[in-house]
Amino acid sequence: MFPVSIKGVLVLPSDEVVLALNDRNEWELPGGRIEIGESSTDCLVREFKEELGIEVEAVNLVDTYLFEVIPDKYVFIVTYSCRLIGQFTPVVSHEHHKIETFPIDDLPNNLPIGYAKSIQKSFSMNLSC
Q1: Which CATH number fits domain 4-128: 3.30.70.20, 3.10.129.10, 3.40.228.10, 3.90.79.10?
Q2: Cα-based angle 58, 93, 33 (whole degrees, multiple of 5)
C-alpha cells in the first residue's frame, strides 16, 4: 500500500502556475497527505490553506499516478485543477522554502515530470471549458 498525496494545479489569470520548493530542492504542486475521514477535495483546500495561506476550490480531477519520491519510496499522487478564492497573497509555511509562480510554457527544470504533465493536462482542460 502507498501513501496518498492530493496535489493542486492552480493557474493564475496570468497563465502562471503556483509551485512550492521542497526540501529535496524540487518544485512541486501544493498539497499533501489525505487524512482519515477527509475527502480528497477537502484535503486539497486544507493543504493550500496550511501551505500557502490562500483559499482554493478543487474544480476537476486531472490525473493520478505513482511517483517514486526517492529510490524505492512511492506515493500515489492525485491532482486536481483549482480555482483561487479571494486574493493571491501566499505566505510560505514551514513545509517549503519558497512559493513562486512560473509561466506554463517555462516550467523549472527541477520539477518532477509527473507534476509537469499534470500542469499541462490541467491547462489544456481549462482551455477546452
Answers
A1: 3.90.79.10
A2: 50
